[in-house]
Amino acid sequence: MGFVIGLLTFFIVLDCLVLILLVLMQLPKKEAGAGLAFGGAATDALFGAGSGNFLTKTTKYAAAIFFVLAMILSILQTEMHNRSDIEFRRQIQEQQNQPISGGVPAATPNAPSAAAGSNLLGLPLELGTNLPAAAGTNTPGTNTHPATAPPPK
Questions:
Q1: Within 10 A of 102 (CB to CB), how many other CB atoms are there?
Q2: What is the pTM of this model?
Q3: pLDDT tens-digit profile of 23-59?
């Protein structure tokens, strides 16, 4: 849907530029106006002596195309907005309908524990690092845990 909207937006901008040029090239009725921007004989030289009819018809078609594209873009934008709004509301409703689990979530079986030589992020520690001694160890500065420490003598 987004691609179609972008493509139609490109065509409507292109149509706007064509409309601007067509209006500027038309001959004025009383020899004054925006038609003199390119010179009085510019359209005659470019499109021939009867260019007023050609430019007038082309301007009408370009204006009709502009209005049709504007209406189509308006409908597509409204539909896309409503669709995303409905999808958002559906997701919120699903979240509200899910039961809330109380307490602390259970640990996953594959997650490393802090006692097994890992840091707070669950990443394994490198061998040979010095961490503060855990409570119950008798050798400060080692990686021993109270459960794995040798019994005191």
A1: 5
A2: 0.46
A3: 888 877 655 445 555 555 555 556 665 556 888 889 9
